């Protein structure tokens, strides 16, 4: 499988504050949104929809990245 890079990696401190995660591909962002996201809600759902749309080449990767960052802030992640 080919990975889709979405620019500079996004480094985030997890909500618990004990780990830093680096998101350098859209696939990792989707995995986290689907399997490891600490909260569910509208922002998470929107980010997941944007990520999957970008993976299907239906929308720009930049839109997925922006939605992911907004969802991460809402979920309690902090910039590393």
UniProtKB/TrEMBL annotation:
A Pfam family this chain is assigned to: DUF982
InterPro entries: DUF982
Protein name: DUF982 domain-containing protein
Organism: Salipiger pallidus
